[in-house]
Amino acid sequence: MKTIKLGLLGLGTVGGGTLRILQDNAEVLSQRTNARFEVTRIAVRDLNKPRAVDTGDIALTDDPRSVVDAADVNVVVELMGGTGLARELVLRAIENGKHVVTANKALLAEHGDEVFSAAARRGVQVAYEAAVAGGIPIIKALREGLSANRIDWVAGIINGTGNYILTEMKQPGADFDAVLRQAQALGYAEADPTFDVEGIDAAHKLTILAALAFGMPLRFDRVHTEGISRITADDMRFADMLGYEIKHLGIARRTDAGVSLRVHPTLIPKDVLLASVSGVMNAVMTHGDQVGPTLYYGPGAGAGPTASAVVADLVDVARGMTCGETVPALGFRETTDLPVLEMEQVECACYLRFLAKDAPGVLAQFSSALADEGISIEHMHQEPCEDGSGDALVVLITNVVPEAAMNRAIRRLEALEAIDGSVQRIRIETLN
Amino acid sequence: MKTIKLGLLGLGTVGGGTLRILQDNAEVLSQRTNARFEVTRIAVRDLNKPRAVDTGDIALTDDPRSVVDAADVNVVVELMGGTGLARELVLRAIENGKHVVTANKALLAEHGDEVFSAAARRGVQVAYEAAVAGGIPIIKALREGLSANRIDWVAGIINGTGNYILTEMKQPGADFDAVLRQAQALGYAEADPTFDVEGIDAAHKLTILAALAFGMPLRFDRVHTEGISRITADDMRFADMLGYEIKHLGIARRTDAGVSLRVHPTLIPKDVLLASVSGVMNAVMTHGDQVGPTLYYGPGAGAGPTASAVVADLVDVARGMTCGETVPALGFRETTDLPVLEMEQVECACYLRFLAKDAPGVLAQFSSALADEGISIEHMHQEPCEDGSGDALVVLITNVVPEAAMNRAIRRLEALEAIDGSVQRIRIETLN
């Protein structure tokens, strides 16, 4: 039985989880690989910090460069995060001829092309199952399981914090700020929640999913990103009434004109399975030209689930280490530089919500403002505003129109005397 | 670019779908593999049958042995089905040093140990992603994606016909026979539906899933199998009222005493994602000790989805053909002969439904019959029978008890004067 020597960069939640799986499930791992994993070195930031996991006689160091340079390390496991030092260390590990396993979505979304091409040149593997949707083997599904397909689209709930908040907001009257504070108290949201609730984390993951789905380069810079902080209790209630759930989706869709890459709150029909994914759970749905729709569901974060993906990568690397040819990092031997659509070119049906004054001809005014941009109203709901003003709360579902037309229509609506304040727009995806 | 020469056995729905993907998606397949797939030979039963797919100048033959013996075939793709001739041909292809891709669940469930060990001896691959849940890459997920885990259980909706029937039976008053006839008219059920509705097809697939999950031999002979034909409109209604869906599940669960392998109608809580899987779709849920619950959803049958899995296997074989070490067929290098529980040893909560005479002391009679076997009633619902007899329709949810105790309790109940006819028992799984 061969021994595979591992150097860990980072011993936080995921690092500790990885070490624990390698210890607890050593037998099942040997049965799967005919190999034994031995952690020889671990780089940590603070040598004196107490650890929840037993590091035995593994050499701990606060010099991560010594780990990526060590002769007794075959595979570097990068679990420190960030795009500065992590990038330097990963590239240096590759240069040293070591395989790399990483959970670092930001690094790959922003510098993946550089990392993967360095690895291909040097003939080593960079595995990253843990970088998207934690414990769900979605990288493997897209890269290998669906390899017969031309992928049409990918849509995912890929941030557990955001999905937890939206799930809790379904409670009558629960508003975003209150639910966010509750999520922070429970440890589901960070003190600074921007990264999660504004969609940046989801955009990193979507960048990787799109590259895998379409064989295109990693284009984080081209992802249109909107957060969920502007969603209100009214929106949750109206969406429910109209047969939808509001989910914060990452969407990558191939059209004849190009690829759209976007993260935004989205109405999806309740009878689509993705609509039933609640709480901190993640799920990725995709549509292949041959297989049709498939969905992958599971925990998207946490020590156990993320480390499960890290260790699955180690098993893959172990299986491939005696092998000349491996699966290319993004599933394709070469990427195709597909055009990425401007958000203005993307076509969606929309949910619109606004306050209208109770005056004659108001309906005619806003329906003609929409019609002028080629937008028709598929469904309308109107109810008296509870503030006693006599104003009406209006909710519309439109047909599918280009974002540019919708933007112009919203500006027209907001300019109307009869409409108070701004227009809430949430895009609809039917996912079929 | 290397060329990989394929010999197809069978050109029915899946064979035709496979040929079409190889033609239509040739470019994406080359981008993924650096190889070109060429179908050189196809064995069919009837050379004169008209074909929906263009076979061009591929050599068609009605002698399948000539395909598995041909020098210009590197990979044999077995899509003919059955366990007689198919077994002989697959073993002969392996003996001839050819890789095999198959969609044949019956062959693997019943003769997989023989097939896989022949392949391991000869150093060739047998790939079978299409054998379970059609287009869903569940084999890869269990074998590779979750390889860090000790799998606790697998539970799947793995027969689309049965799930379609149960979904349609949710319409008020729809009964099994009427829905089955409708499914037959739509082509979702065969003229002889036994294989699907009695759970034999699901048992074949469950056998394979259990071997993958636990690294155990293929024990089709030990799967307890019950069909859905005894489920009534009343059961659907009561399940709904109590917060459950009835699904026909294949369940493999590891306990300290052994593994339980069973296919039977099952009540699952509505808030478990599996409960939302409707129509002909399939889904497999699994629980790993590290990752927790994950779920895989998609179309379980049909030309496109099944061929999607066949071609993904071809891509894997192509990637591995220059490689010394490959993933073992069942994910483990060696299987462990885990004890399989007798059904009497399996522990479940149960839903019981029966007719009780409207007489004093009836409740005491049946609750003490249950208590005598250590069974408690967690929930009870009673309503007058619509036939005007004065009898009551009684529905109970019990605590978790061994099947043997429940069997004895049901015999006690059926022996009571106060109970009319037989007791309907449906097992409950909370899937957590």
Describe what is shown at a glance.
By secondary structure, chain A is an alpha/beta fold.
Structure report:
Two copies of one chain form a homodimer. Chain A is an alpha/beta fold. Chain A folds into three domains: 152 residues, Rossmann fold (3-Layer(aba) Sandwich); 161 residues, Dihydrodipicolinate Reductase, domain 2 (2-Layer Sandwich); 82 residues, Alpha-Beta Plaits (2-Layer Sandwich), CATH 3.30.70. Chain A contains 14 helices and 17 strands. In chain A, strand 4, helix 4 and strand 5 form a beta-alpha-beta unit. In chain A, helix 5 runs parallel beside helix 10. The first copy, chain A, starts with a strand and ends with a strand. At the A-B interface, helix 1, helix 2, helix 6, strand 12 and helix 12 of A face helix 1, helix 2, helix 6, strand 12 and helix 12 of B.
CATH architecture of the largest domain in chain A: 2-Layer Sandwich
Number of domains of chain A: 3
What kind of oligomer do you see?
homodimer
* CATH top level class name of the largest domain in chain A: Alpha Beta
The CATH superfamily name of the largest domain in chain A is Dihydrodipicolinate Reductase, domain 2
How would you classify the helix and strand content of chain A by structural class?
alpha/beta
Rounded mean pLDDT of chain A is 92
Could you tell me how far the N terminus lies from the C terminus of chain A, measured between alpha carbons in angstroms? 48 Å
Beta-sheet strand percentage of chain A? Answer: 25-35%
Major sheet of chain A: 11 strands, mixed
